[in-house]
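User: Just a sanity check before I run the rest of the batch. Below are the structure tokens for the first item. I only need the designed sequence back.
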């Protein structure tokens, strides 16, 4: 499988049942974790440094999935080795009273990365066209009744696409990743949260309750992916049953997005270059022991 195999082309109809949830290729976990993944992370580190130095672009990575698909673990393993000063991770849970008193994108806008940063959304504005739709929450969000029409979801798809285009056109590219886990694998992970004491804290009754809506979620997510994957803000549907392959795939996607930005270290002015060259020559002429002695006198 190539990363492009997971891309949802603009205008493409997505049926999640037709998309793989596990990797069946020739790559091995050992080769990926010991050889390939470290190389990708090293590339990401270099690109992140240039992104921060360039300070013109920011990258937004959106991660959506069913419960227990591996969002937290993927964020930890892919981004933990980057410079934390340049990475922001934001999780979006049920909106607060204050957030409900604003439009649904208000809390999202507040969480956007700055120029030079990578922002990761653990869940996102897409909760407002998935969870809100499945549980019919739109009427309790404060929206005027006369604006809640049959085409409310189509209008939100349009609003989201317009917003993502706006971000991209202002130097904040958006890439969106759906972690595609199977129903059977989700069951195993939920059971593991119950029987493994160290993972009990992860368990929530809502995970079990939401599982009852599995088929509905699959259908709605398919529609959302179809309606909102664009050339400027694409969706990738990545198999999530094998965590090692999922993490490697996400790392590649993010690495490739940073490559598209192609950030560069800023060029120094001729005056600064001239000064640096003089200092280089001075340092080459000064003995190391002499430098140490000078340092002692300064103290």
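Assistant: Here's the designed sequence for the first item:
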């Amino acid at each position: 499988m190539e990363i492009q195999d997971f891309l949802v082309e603009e205008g493409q109809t997505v049926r999640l049942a037709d998309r793989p949830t596990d990797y069946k290729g020739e790559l091995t976990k050992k080769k990926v974790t010991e050889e390939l993944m470290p190389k990708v992370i090293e590339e990401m580190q270099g690109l992140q440094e240039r992104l921060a130095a360039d300070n013109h672009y920011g990258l937004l990575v959106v991660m959506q999935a069913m419960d227990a698909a591996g969002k937290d673990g993927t964020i930890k393993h892919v981004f933990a080795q980057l410079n934390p000063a340049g990475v922001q991770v934001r999780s979006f849970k049920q909106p607060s009273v204050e957030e409900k008193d604003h439009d649904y994108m208000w809390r999202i806008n507040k969480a956007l990365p700055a120029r030079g940063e990578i922002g990761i959304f653990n869940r996102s504005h897409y909760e407002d066209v998935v969870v809100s739709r499945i549980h019919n929450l739109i009427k309790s969000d404060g929206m005027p009744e006369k604006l809640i029409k049959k085409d409310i979801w189509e209008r939100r798809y349009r609003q989201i696409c317009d917003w993502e285009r706006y971000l991209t056109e202002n130097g904040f590219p958006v890439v969106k990743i759906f972690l595609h886990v199977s129903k059977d694998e989700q069951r195993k992970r939920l059971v593991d949260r119950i029987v493994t004491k160290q993972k009990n804290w992860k368990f929530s009754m809502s995970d079990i309750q939401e599982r009852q809506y599995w088929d509905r979620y699959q259908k709605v997510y398919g529609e959302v992916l179809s309606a909102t994957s664009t050339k400027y803000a694409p969706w990738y549907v990545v198999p999530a049953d094998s965590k090692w392959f999922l993490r490697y795939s996400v790392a590649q996607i993010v690495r490739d997005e940073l490559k598209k930005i192609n950030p560069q270290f800023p060029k120094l002015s001729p005056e600064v270059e001239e000064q640096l060259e003089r200092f280089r020559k001075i340092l080459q002429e000064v003995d190391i022991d002499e430098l140490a002695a000078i340092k002692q006198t300064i103290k």
